[in-house]
Amino acid sequence: MREELITSGRMNPGIDPVLHGWHWPIPFYLFVGGLAAGLLFFAAYKVLFGKEKDFPTAVMIGPFVALAAIVMGLMALIYDLHHPLYAWQLFTTIRIESPMSWGAWTLMIVSIVNAVWIFTYLKKIFPDFNLKQNFLRKVISNFIEEKQSEGKLNWDWKYKFLRDFESFLIKNRKALAWLMMILSIILGVYTGILLSAFNARPLWNTALLGPLFLTSGFSTGAAMLMILSKTHLEKIAFSKIDVLLIIIELFFITHMFMGYLAGSEVKAEAAHYFMGGEFTVTFWVNVIILGLVVPLALETMELLNVKIPVIIPGLLILWGGMMFRFIMVDAGQVIRYLY
Amino acid sequence: MRYGMAIDTRKCVGCSDCVVACQTENSIPHGYTRDWISETVEGMYPNLALEIRSERCNHCDDTPCVRTCPTGSSHIIEGGIVKVTHEECIGCGACIESCPYDARYFHPEGYVDKCTFCDHRVKNGQDPACVSVCPTHCMYFGDLDDPNSEISKVVAKNKVKVLAPEAGTKPQIFYLV
Amino acid sequence: MKTTRRDFIKISSLGIGGLALSTSPILGWVPSFLKEDDNTPDDSTAKRYPNYCEVCFWNCAGWVYTNKDKDGNEKIWKIIGNDDDPNSNGRFCPRGTGGIGMYYDKDRLRKPLKRVTGEDGNQTFVEIEWDEAIDIVAKKMKEIKTKYGPESFALFKHGTSGKHFATLFKAYGSKNMAGPAYSQCKAPREEGFRMTFGHPLHSPEPLDIRNTRCLVLIGSHLGENMHNGQVQEMSEAIENGASIITVDPRFSTAASKSKFWLPIKPSTDIALLLAWMHVIIKEKRYDIDYVEKNTSGFEQLKNHVKNFTPEWAYGITTIKPDIIRKTAREMAAASPAVIIHPGRHATWYGDDTQRSRAIAILNALLGSWGRRGGFFNPEKAKLPKYPMPAFPKPKWSWRDIAPDKYPLAKMGVTNLLIDGSHPDKKEGHKIKAWFVVGTNLPVTIPNSKRTIEAIHNQEFIVVVDTMPSEMAGYADIVLPEATYLERYDDLRLAQHREPTIALRMPAAKPYAETRPGWKMCKDIAGKLGLSEYFNYNDYSEVLDWQLKKIGSSLDEMKEIGVMKLDRKYNDLYFHEHMEHEFETPTGKIEFYSNGMLAAGFAPMPVYTKHPEPPKGFYRLIYGRAPMHTFSRTTNNPYLMELMKENALWVNPKTAKDWGLKTGQRVWLQNHQGAVSTFSIAVRVTERIRQDSVYMVHGFGRLNKKLTKGYGAGISDTEMVTDVKIDKETGSTGMRSNFVTFLTEEPEKKEKTV
Ligand code: SF4
Ligand code: SF4
Ligand code: SF4
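^ Those are the sequences you sent over. The predicted structure of the assembly is below.
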């Protein structure tokens, strides 16, 4: 028998008996970050490849959801700080080696680009704007004015610089799309490698975690678009993308576990947490079965023309993606090198 | 100059004086500690082996905790001592998560705290509090870069190991086994 | 490795630092008053006051540091050893370092308390003023004196301030005083050694561990008991390559550092000791010259152990014969630099004086008494006595409670005083009132039930303590004492290789309305008309007077804390080829003791079989943890941090039989039906024998006012109801109890005192 214990000292709250320095906000933040990355990626992608017309949801609605997700993510991140009043110090320095640091910066920049993107589509999304209703609209009405014009569009920006800015952006939309695509990939990779940058935790110490989270983030993005889109064309397109991403994800997961098992003693032990140990049921049921296998089956059926309401596989993928992050963050903290 | 510690597990009795001395010296709030004692028992009665270790931050050479800190609050000072500037710490927990030894904790005042190698004593030429009280004299502190220092000699002369070397942090606390 | 480190700093400051904006003065701006790395106070702003520790009997001398806290108040900060102190060599043990917890404990007694009975018949304590408290105590002392004679008032004491109360009692006319440090601890050892060498060991034991080549620990878990200087010397011995032989049914810390660990069956030590003697004598490995010169009764001993072969002992102790032989040879090879450790707490099975005699005899065979690496000859400083009148002669003392019992006891036997206090005492001298100073009788004396019955039979009980102990819960009057950090006491005159004097002085004002013991005694004496025994205004005057007589002063001692003196005699070790006079009847070390025989005991130790655990029961072994001193520290905020409760060590096989898991809570029941008040967490570990369980003593506190200690674990004393009295000294054997596990909470009983 081997008995390993701390006999005195260090019952530091948050550290013992198991580490729980990060609570729900962090996996939540990773989840919404990945989701936003996926959404923004597809928006930019469709624009770049001239599919803007066929994919109105991806191009115009997705970024709205993405912005909301990013804002919620940032709020969660700050909520989890033990010294939130000092949070501004995140933005007094850039530390390339610290994923927290460049993550915060990426999120900040992404959210600006994201907002700009939305700005360029506002007229298309809300052509008909009723000005005098409530307080919020009163605030907005400071920036816009009613105008009579052809079609449905009944308003325009009040200030010239806004109008100039808008037309400048629309002219350079492709460039903006490139920028957003690159940023979305950075964001997606970031949510993936945040954990694997903490390679001092056996479970997170794997290079596969980055691509895996990136894939899973994009797949949640695709799932979200699948749910939101109104046209069959869009639904099917994202359904196909999802099938592909899920297959890649399953491949990565298999490899990841094989890597653990072939690795050092602690890593093999880490794998056992998922194969008989305390995370087995949660992981297999929520992530693998509900989050990957079932939606994969449903979507394949759908592609084979069996009628399935997309909301089901869509929500399952979102659920699986979120659980995956919660489990990885939790388990990563539980599994440690010593004792 | 490279400060480090060597701890002789053959002499340590696990009395925990190092733990309480650190608490009083550094006014650590009740319920928290910067150092701790671990015990490993192996074998079956009556063929047993026991190792007792006094543990704390390893003041690693390759410091994931400093690397992952987003504000630069975690930093390295003269002699390789890893410290946290309380007022720059936003309490994000990145360093806590990145330390394979769980050597850091959230101080109730919001910042992250950890062993400082008692730099406030070391700069006056004193040993860290834990080293200076150890009744069994099983801890050695000093400059690992100086081959004539007691610690360098102790490390050179004895069989030593570090904890969780596979974590790759190059810890600078050596255990005599 | 080291170059990498420098590289890393370089990379981070050039490569990344170049990119990082953190170097930018504007963006990296933090108000400079916030930039301070931390605000750890250091020694430069500290003040220090000499003291000697009162957390355990080792009384290490050191310095109490005070420093300014955040709000600028001078506060006790830390305690550090005094380099000139031989007991600690400048290094305190965890309890001494955590001694500041005695000062900072939020549950401390603050004001005198008086027991009152309310209209509803419930008894409670009310706070009263000191004047009233002293009045009541003095009045009661007078009353007892007129009604029964002063001898009927007994004093139980422990610790340094006990001395002031002893003076008060002697002046008052009672010599009925005792402390658990004797009958619940070292009485058998002291008397066993006295009967062999003519001399008890006292404290700290004069063991030359740092020079020894072989240390045999039988019944000592040195390292878990932090007998500071000895633990330090054991570490030195390990460093020097000395071999350690540990005899313990538990894989103790010391066992893990030993060359040989003998996992003996509990209660069979004497058989092993006899077998060792057998081997050593048979193989002529004893110190022949030394034995010839200094001992008497060797032939009788030789005959006595003739049949106690290792094979015989194997059947009893479960230790293999070849291991017995090997270890005997190991110690003989180191002779005379060998120590069979006498242990300290030695009240186990009821034949404990004999057991200690066996240890003493084995040491004598190997010639270690008076030899380098064995037992040295300690010296102690002497100070003139502060003048006071002679004490009156009491008419009877504790011995007269049962005149024909315990002839070898040389100090007050606590349990005899309890016998004298118990309602079943119908004839002869009786105890009617108790004065209890710094000792927690219901937790310390086994069979708490009987102790509590005796308590209920008293007319009056005063308790002096710093904490709301269990004992305080039974008092009529509680007098809150200032801790050792807030008071003067007698100078410490510890025996050691060289004599020393150490000072205790206050480092802070007495907390709340607490008072030092000497002050209480002086005030009570004043009311009793005994003022001439306390002829000073402040105890520092006594110390100054004594110190001036030897050419020093209180002021000097305040500077140095510890004064080292030269030895008067150059006899740390025996001089070879010199005859030695021992204070025994024969003037020699006595293998064979006529004195024992005359008192009705075996003249040479014999092995007796002791009861074994019934089926489903396990022998309860208790011991100590290095961070606690019995119940004295089990509410200390610092030390409780290190160990919050005790655990029950259970062998994995036993655990499997019972389906017990580490961390699971169980209650205990002993073989006489006693059930524990609280539960204890199981620790499944290979470190304990299958037929025994182990726990640390002093936990499971019953007084609800102890916010940290109340209900934390089990008190082993509750489980010790079957007490085997040592007939020689009257000490209480406590290793004779067997327990079984209750996995469900037993029916509630009253949990508080
Ligand atoms: S003070 Fe020394 S002997 Fe005691 S636990 Fe710490 S390192 Fe070990
Ligand atoms: S032990 Fe942990 S906190 Fe200390 S330097 Fe290493 S990684 Fe950092
Ligand atoms: S070096 Fe100082 S801060 Fe670090 S564990 Fe030791 S006493 Fe505590």
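Chain A touches chain B through 51 residues (CB under 8 Å). The longest helix of chain A spans residues 232-262.

Shout if you want it in another format.
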